[in-house]
Design a protein that fits this description.
alpha+beta; 4 helices; about 30% helix; globular
């Protein structure tokens, strides 16, 4: 079996093929979206503003994803409570993310060498939300998709 050289473990796509056959990480993300949509998470304030930045990480009993939200648009914690009631583990925390500066904020020097003309960076405050979903929930959703429609 091929292993990821950096972590000495199977890559996410290789794990997916072993576990689910032809299903990929994208299929698991779609199942996570369906789960969250079924329990109306996206009806809560600012939950549609998030972007998944890590995951899915598939473990024996859990599937984990991490999402980032603009600092001004903290996701409603009541949605986190709804996830917890469904057996999930949810963690909210403040963080900083490195992003490129706006062009107006950058001093540009045309004579500078390419090393000196690298993109200027700045730290931006964000909200991070890490969600661990019981794997059995996602497995059931994927099994429903696998079954032929009668």
């Amino acid at each position: 079996m091929p292993f990821n050289k950096n972590t000495d473990s199977l890559s996410t796509d290789e794990e997916m093929k072993l576990i689910y056959g032809d299903f990929t990480a994208l299929d698991v993300l779609i199942a996570i979206y369906e789960f969250m949509n079924d329990i109306n998470i996206f009806a809560y304030k600012n939950w549609m503003e998030g972007r998944i930045i890590e995951g899915p990480f598939i473990e024996r009993y859990w599937i984990e994803i991490s999402a980032v939200f603009p600092y001004e648009k903290m996701p409603d914690p009541a949605a986190g409570m709804r996830l917890i009631k469904r057996g999930c583990d949810v963690k909210f925390f403040k963080s900083k993310m490195e992003v490129a500066k706006d062009l107006e904020d950058v001093d540009y020097n045309a004579e500078a060498s390419p090393e000196e003309r690298r993109t200027a960076k700045k730290d931006k405050k964000v909200w991070m939300v890490t969600i661990q979903i019981p794997r059995i929930v996602i497995d059931r959703l994927i099994e429903q998709v696998k079954e032929p429609v009668k």
